[in-house]
Design a protein that fits this description.
- This protein is α/β, with parallel strands linked by helices.
- The chain has a single domain, classed as Rossmann fold, CATH 3.40.50.720.
- It has ten helices and seven strands.
- It has a seven-stranded parallel β-sheet, with helices on both faces.
- α2 packs parallel to α3, α2 crosses α8 and α5 runs parallel beside α6.
- The structure holds NADP nicotinamide-adenine-dinucleotide phosphate.
Length: 266
């Protein structure tokens, strides 16, 4: 047992662990000696994540699953069995940038399901064992967009605002339960997310997933909401300071210009 496994439990569930921030969460939690339950759809990439974590002498359980499938959370919980889950990282998600009416509506609904319904259902399934043990940690990956009104990224931004408000409210309900909550709100980060979302951040600062996750890991137990990067924090403050009628056109201008591809391929 080390500090982290004593404080939270032996295993962490990381959704979306096949790439980007999820893979980085897996690696940095492995560095803390936490065993991993790695969840996503692409088995080969989950295996690569597990291989990277091996050097830290932790065990990994790979669960290949489309989290938007019916009964996926029941399947996941069956596979987890009675492992001692100390940390849940609700990370899997995707975005779609472009004119709302040009984007495929079924994909937008799927995005709402993955980004919002899955964290609600999975947290509900895993929290009881944390409450019973009287310890644990919930990490929710939201976004800087949660603080903004996001034309041309409207549904995605709304899903991330949902994640922020849900996780923040839940952390209040859990305040006397010895469960640490952390909500990570990254700005633009260099992962597959950008290409898949139809975003080309040519003139924007892009953070690395390593730095973003390091900030989250360092902040767990100390802070509730974490926005990595000074420019991202300034953006959040400006969004709170200026009236929306002034700030939203600026956000719209930026989002329109970084999502210029034809979204028909999405
Ligand atoms: N990158 C950014 O600029 C940025 C900024 C703010 C917030 N975020 C948030 O960060 C989180 C992680 O994104 P990322 O940047 O790391 O992007 P990413 O590299 O595309 O990772 C997304 C992960 O989610 C998994 N996933 C997607 N659909 C899934 C499904 N139906 N079932 C199970 N797993 C699924 C993907 O795995 P498979 O494809 O193998 O299933 C992948 O592992 C997301 O919630 C995103 O909203 C990203």
């Amino acid at each position: 047992m080390n500090d982290w496994t004593t404080r939270y439990g032996a295993w962490a569930v990381v959704t979306g662990a096949s790439s980007g921030l999820g893979r980085e969460f897996a690696i940095q939690l492995a560095q803390k000696g936490v065993n991993l339950i790695l969840v996503a759809r692409r088995t080969d990439l989950l295996e690569q994540t597990a291989k990277k974590c091996e050097i830290y002498n932790v065990d990994s359980l790979i669960i290949t699953l489309d989290l938007t499938d019916r009964d996926s959370i029941d399947t996941l919980m069956d596979k987890i069995g009675d492992l001692d889950i100390g940390i849940l990282v609700n990370n899997a998600g995707f975005g779609l940038a472009g004119n709302y009416m040009d984007l495929n509506v079924q994909k937008q609904v799927k995005m709402v399901q993955l980004n919002c319904a899955v964290p609600v259902e999975l947290t509900h399934a895993i929290l009881p064992q944390m409450l019973k043990k009287g310890k644990g940690a919930l990490i929710t990956v939201s976004s800087l967009t949660a603080f903004l009104v996001n034309p041309y990224f409207s549904v995605y931004g709304a899903t991330k605002a949902f994640d922020l408000l849900f996780a923040e409210a839940l952390s209040y309900e859990l305040r006397d339960m010895n469960i640490d909550s952390l909500i990570l709100c990254p700005g633009i980060t260099g992962t597959e997310f950008l290409k898949k979302s139809n975003i080309r951040p040519e003139f924007m600062p892009v953070m690395t997933p390593e730095k973003v996750v390091k900030k989250a890991i360092q902040s767990l137990g100390h802070k509730l909401v974490v926005i990595p990067g000074i420019i991202n924090r300034l953006t959040m403050f400006a969004a709170g300071f200026f009236p929306r009628c002034l700030f939203t056109p600026i956000v719209a201008f930026v989002l329109k210009h970084i999502s210029t591809e034809d979204p028909a391929h999405l």
